[in-house]
Amino acid sequence: MDRRCAVAATAIALGLSLTLPTAGPMANAAPATATRPATRDVAFTPGAVCDLATAQRLSSRHPSTRQFVIVAADTWDATTATLQIVARSNGGQWRCQQAPVAARLGKSGSRPLIERRSGDGTTPAGVFPLGNVLAWDGQQFQFFGNRPDIGVRGSYRLVRNEDCWGATPHTASYQQLVNSPRCSSPDEWLTSIGDVYGHAAVIGANLDPISGALPGEPAFAAAIFLHRNSYSASGGSRPTSGCVSLAEDDLEFALRLIDPSLGVQFAIGELSWLRDSA
Question: What's residue 39's pLDDT?
Fold first, then answer.
């Protein structure tokens, strides 16, 4: 391999753009130079069709967001919805990353965050960031699970036996991951939830700031995640207690796409409300 080819191969491996001298008498006059890093666009699914109109309308109110996880229900009391992931390309076009898949919501449907309360069986509606949580042992994380990391794009916590997510309103542990093995309901001992929490993303509803830990504060929400469906004995998916859930394959696909570097937001709620108000 001659020098020009070797430099080109190295630059391609590093993702660089090259300026190479032309062949001829001046070919040895100057070395090849790397001028700038190549710009990588976000990944899209060829042929996938998403509701890009809703993404564009959400973007008009949340302009810094380049990725939405849209969870849209037909009605407020629906316990089923669709989940899709869309992202804005480097050129400014909204494109489909994950086509709509079936999702489950709370057993009482969904409700705007400020109108719901912990334990009411609704999924909080609104536009929420990917949650960033500080655990009792000092680890910060955005994803977690009882099974090893599948290659998510953010920080991942493999659940410890001590991990308890506080969900009791007006206590110091509310909406915190604390050291309390075998904690009891409404708190969640994460390891006891098994493969339903095999892999999960934290939905940042009522996380920054937290309301409900102090007496008199409204306890809007705690332990709101994107996780795997739970199933009845007959094999049908069940509604959740307030989270968003998916079939396992759909969940793993989604978790690998969710990208903190794009300012990802979860947009959850009744479809027309998402388009007009969220």
Answer: 62
